[in-house]
Every structure is written in structure tokens, then in C-alpha cells.
């Protein structure tokens, strides 16, 4: 099996954008092609990670539209939908296409246009992933977060303030990300006094609704220097995908995300590393509680101890294990199909030494992209080439 | 944000009509495990062999939240709980749980619940306004069971 390299990357500004999904995808795609020094016609495969362009704006068939807009025909195209983890699933599909030998050059573009919808409408589009017995009760992804946060705080005797500190940390990181939706620090008091959304969680415990796009270019490692003559490329040394139950209440332990445990076990084994070997991580902090759950289920911290790591500054940018140097979904924004791609973009920048003011010392980085409330998960491990 | 048309009248005593309400159907599988909702195959791959009516079981609150930002057609605020049913000492399968709305008191406010509270299921013929949200109204049922504290 070929080792797969990432030789080009881009992302648009995340936030409220005038552009629609086709334009957002083209903006990121064109920039990634340029970053890799190629044109659309060079691509064998072109994937689009997108959850709901049909539901949000009535535009389906986006991979074909993008192939035409970037003059990438006759590249093979496909849309990858795995709800909020569509981006991670797209990374998996792109990796698979090159590792299998089916493609010598693949581009993945993830994107979503959401902000033209009201919060209630956007929340309902996302909640449509739930089982009918959940949906009829009006459950939303934020309410799953509230249910889980209350149980976590109760079971592990964690203070409410520890969740707020995740928001404070990730907002501080986002200040140095020119692509982030919010480049503004928040203090703990502001977080803890913001309006209740799904108690015990408040407004600043949640990521915003976002428009945006991100893109990556993949090729066999054996030819990576053709596209990155300076040697600045990253290798996907491990990747794994897994699912958990569709119905959230059927999980043995509601504070454990089985898909994170299982997908990361596959990725660690493939990479031949342990959690301790990870230098930097991008986690799916759609809600602050998810950063605790993932940091534990990835094996970074013991179960029930993730909150202590945040309290002690271990996950700060200058800590032992920086988490969400990009600002995370919390500050950077969460354009569903783009988020998993943008997570890998950040890790790519970190392990190639190109993260600017966000740069940390990192040879090995991990991105964990979560769909639903842990329903589908992809974990990717990247290593720098140098 | 719109409120549901569903009347939150689950505090009332059951009527004759309510006694004919649908069952709170969970599935029983060949290995003895029970799941809600029912699936074609059990959690360990065992075939389905029957049904269990969860109305016959009390439950405890595992966790709860009150959602203030609700989607179209859902009451606001919407207090939800995950509950775990007491299946009896002989049951040794995985926990049997359900997620549902917390029923309302006579003033129309959701009962207060805390982790560990005993609750019982009470039927409501419409939990959320069909057609107000994105899901096709005919694609699923909209009635079901809320949870009320047991005094």
C-alpha cells in the first residue's frame, strides 16, 4: 500500500460569507491547486465533503459542478456525506484513492453554506440525522451536549468552570488564525454568564453557524517532492474510521465516544505510535464538552481527567499537548463539510512548520472529526516530511 | 422559533381512550437483550423474538437538560431526559434506556427532575408538530411517551 502525502492545502475565510456553496468550494479548490502547483486537469479524483447543500440551498451535484468550474473534467468525482464528519470521511476517501493506486493525484474540497438560514432552521437540518424516536421529541445536537455535559460533571466531579475554560482557550487560539470566524478573546465570566442554550451549557459552549471551505491535495509519497520541491509536505501515517450507535441513549457509557476510541486505535496502530507520541491535536469541539470526551477517548488522558488537563493548562498552545491551535470549531467556525478538512489543514500547517503565530513544536499531529454526537468518527495522524 | 401545537396535558389521569394508547414498544432478542427503539437485529447480532412494553417498567433519570433553542414545531423550552428502565433482577442484558420529553405539570411547566429520580412513561399523541421541521411528516410517528416523576 502506497504511503500518501499531502502536498497542497488551502482554506477560505470562515464566517458569514456572501458566496454560495459552489463559489466557496471553487475558492478553496483553486487555492489548493495553486498551492500544489497543479491545475484541475492534472487531477485523477476530485472529492467534495458536504453534508447538506441540497437541504441548505437547493444545490445538489456539487462535485460535478466543481469539476467543471476548475476545469478538472474528466476526473472521477464523488460527494462524501457523513454529517459533521464529512470532512474527515473525505480525507479517508482521498487517502484510500491514492493508497489503493486508483488515483495518482486527488483533491478533496470540503464546504458548506449555512448562515442564510435561521438558527432554528439550521439546527433542524443538522438534527435530521437523528433517529425518529429522538427527532419527534425535538432533540437537537446542542441538547445532546447538555445531556452529556450534566452527566460528565456529575460523574467526574468536574466544575462547570472547566468547560468554560475550553471556550476561553480556543478563542485565544483563534485570535491568531486569519481564517477564523471569531478572532476575539473571551473571558471566563463572559462564558459563564452567556445565555443558557441547553443547560448546563451556555452560548459560549457552542460553535457558531458558519460558511466556508477548505481543500487538500493528495499524492503518493514517492512523488511528493515533484509537487513540494522544498520538501514541505506531510504524510498520513495513520488513519481510521469507525461508527457508534445511531441512537445516542443506547451507548453503554454516554460519556464515552466509541467511534473515537475505535477509529484512533486503528490510526495509532497504522502509524505505529501511541497517544503520548502526538505533539498537537485538532479535536471536534462543536461543544466544549466534546473536547473533554475526545481527549480522553483518544487516550491523551484517563477517563474523567480531561477537564483537569484544561484546568492545568496542559492543552494550551504553550502546554505539553496543545489542542485546537486553530481556535477549533468553537472559534474558527463549523461549516459542516469543511470542518474535518480544515482540521487536517491546521495539522498539515503545524507539522510542516508553516503555522505562523500559531506554530508549536510538532512532528506528529492528530485530527479527530466527529459526526452526529459521536455517531461517525475519523481520526487521522500526520507526520512532517522533515 | 415556533411552539408546538401539541398539548402538554400528560399530567392528567388516564382516560378510557388513553388506556387504549399504543404500547411503549421495545424489542426483545434471542439472547435475552432488550432495546429501545426496536432494531431488526439485537446489539449482539441476535434475532428479534418479541416485544416488551416499557409502560410496565419504572425508570430512573440518567441525565437531563432544558433546551432553550428549539427547532420549528418543538415546544420551548424543551426539557429532555435520558432514562434507564428497571427491567428486573433477572435481566442481565445491556441497559434499556429512552430519551424523551419531561411531562408538564398542571401549570404547563415541565416537572423538575434530577439525576436518579424515578419516572414513569405517560402517553402524548403529538410530541412535536409534524411538518413544521424538515422531516417528511408521513415518514415517522409523532406520538410517544413523555416522562413524569413518580411521587
UniProtKB/TrEMBL annotation, chain A:
Q: Which keywords label this protein?
A: Isoprene biosynthesis
Using the record's annotation, list all stretches that form the Thiolase C-terminal domain: 240-383
| CDD domains registered for this protein in UniProt | SCP-x_thiolase (cd00829)
- Keyword Cell membrane in annotation: no
Tagged with keyword Repeat: no
Residue ranges annotated for the Thiolase N-terminal domain, each copy included: 4-222
What's one Pfam family the UniProt record gives for this protein?
Thiolase_N
| Any one GO biological process | isoprenoid biosynthetic process
Protein name, as recorded: Thiolase family protein
Q: What is the lineage of its organism?
A: Archaea, Methanobacteriati, Methanobacteriota, Stenosarchaea group, Halobacteria
TrEMBL record, chain B:
Q: Which organism is it from?
A: Halorubrum glutamatedens
Q: Where is the composition biased (Acidic residues)?
A: 1-11
Annotated region described as Disordered, given as residue ranges:
1-49
| UniProt cross-references to InterPro entries, sorted A to Z | NA-bd_OB-fold
Q: What is the lineage of its organism?
A: Archaea, Methanobacteriati, Methanobacteriota, Stenosarchaea group, Halobacteria
Q: What is this protein called?
A: Nucleic acid-binding protein
| Basic and acidic residues compositional bias, start-end | 12-22
Where on the tree of life does the source sit, at the highest rank? Archaea
Amino acid at each position: 500500500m502506497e504511503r500518501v502525502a499531502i502536498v497542497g492545502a488551502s482554506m477560505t475565510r470562515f464566517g458569514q460569507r456572501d458566496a454560495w456553496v459552489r463559489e466557496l468550494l471553487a475558492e478553496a479548490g483553486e487555492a489548493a491547486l495553486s498551492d500544489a502547483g497543479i491545475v484541475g486537469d492534472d487531477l485523477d479524483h476530485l472529492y467534495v465533503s458536504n453534508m447538506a447543500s441540497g437541504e441548505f440551498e437547493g444545490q445538489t451535484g456539487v462535485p460535478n459542478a466543481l469539476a467543471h468550474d476548475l476545469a478538472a473534467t474528466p476526473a472521477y468525482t464523488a460527494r462524501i456525506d457523513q454529517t459533521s464528519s464529512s470532512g474527515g470521511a473525505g480525507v479517508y476517501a482521498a487517502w484510500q484513492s491514492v493508497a489503493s493506486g486508483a488515483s495518482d493525484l486527488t483533491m478533496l474540497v470540503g464546504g458548506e453554506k449555512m448562515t442564510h438560514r435561521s438558527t432554528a432552521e439550521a439546527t433542524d437540518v443538522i438534527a435530521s440525522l437523528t433517529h425518529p424516536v429522538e427527532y419527534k421529541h425535538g432533540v437537537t445536537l446542542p441538547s445532546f451536549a447538555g445531556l452529556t455535559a450534566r452527566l460528565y460533571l456529575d460523574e467526574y466531579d468536574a466544575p462547570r468552570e472547566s468547560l468554560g475554560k475550553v471556550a476561553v482557550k480556543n478563542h485565544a487560539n483563534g485570535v491568531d488564525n486569519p481564517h477564523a470566524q471569531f478572532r476575539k478573546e473571551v473571558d471566563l465570566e463572559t462564558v459563564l454568564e452567556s445565555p443558557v442554550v441547553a443547560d448546563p451549557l451556555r452560548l459560549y459552549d457552542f460553535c457558531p453557524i458558519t460558511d466556508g471551505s477548505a481543500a487538500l491535495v493528495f499524492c503518493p509519497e514517492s512523488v511528493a517532492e515533484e509537487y513540494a520541491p522544498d520538501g514541505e509536505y506531510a504524510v498520513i501515517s495513520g488513519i481510521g474510521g469507525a461508527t457508534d450507535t445511531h441512537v445516542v441513549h443506547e451507548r453503554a457509557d454516554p460519556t464515552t465516544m466509541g467511534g473515537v476510541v475505535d477509529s484512533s486505535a486503528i490510526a495509532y496502530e497504522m502509524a505505529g505510535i501511541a497517544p503520548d507520541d502526538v505533539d498537537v491535536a485538532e479535536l471536534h469541539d462543536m461543544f466544549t464538552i466534546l473536547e473533554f470526551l475526545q481527549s480522553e477517548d483518544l487516550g491523551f488522558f484517563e477517563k474523567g481527567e480531561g477537564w483537569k488537563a484544561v484546568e492545568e493548562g496542559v492543552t494550551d498552545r504553550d502546554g505539553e499537548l496543545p489542542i485546537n491551535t486553530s481556535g477549533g470549531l468553537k472559534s474558527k467556525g463549523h461549516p459542516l463539510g469543511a470542518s474535518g478538512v480544515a482540521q487536517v489543514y491546521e495539522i498539515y500547517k503545524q507539522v510542516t512548520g508553516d503555522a505562523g503565530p500559531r506554530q508549536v513544536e510538532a512532528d506528529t499531529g492528530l485530527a479527530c472529526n466527529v459526526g452526529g454526537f459521536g455517531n461517525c468518527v475519523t481520526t487521522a495522524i500526520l507526520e512532517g516530511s522533515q | 422559533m415556533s411552539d408546538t401545537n401539541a398539548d402538554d396535558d400528560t399530567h392528567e389521569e388516564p382516560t378510557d381512550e388513553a388506556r387504549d394508547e399504543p404500547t411503549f414498544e421495545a424489542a426483545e432478542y434471542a439472547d435475552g437483550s432488550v432495546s429501545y427503539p426496536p432494531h431488526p437485529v439485537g446489539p449482539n447480532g441476535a434475532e428479534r423474538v418479541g416485544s416488551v412494553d416499557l409502560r410496565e417498567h419504572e425508570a430512573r433519570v440518567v441525565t437531563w437538560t432544558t433546551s432553550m433553542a428549539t427547532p420549528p414545531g418543538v415546544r420551548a423550552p424543551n426539557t429532555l431526559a435520558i432514562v434507564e428502565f428497571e427491567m428486573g433482577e433477572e435481566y442481565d442484558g445491556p441497559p434499556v434506556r429512552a430519551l424523551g420529553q419531561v411531562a408538564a405539570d398542571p401549570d404547563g411547566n415541565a416537572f423538575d427532575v434530577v439525576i436518579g429520580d424515578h419516572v414513569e412513561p405517560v402517553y402524548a399523541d403529538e410530541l412535536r408538530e409534524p411538518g413544521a421541521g424538515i422531516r417528511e411528516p408521513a415518514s415517522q410517528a409523532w406520538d410517544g411517551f413523555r416522562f413524569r416523576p413518580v411521587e
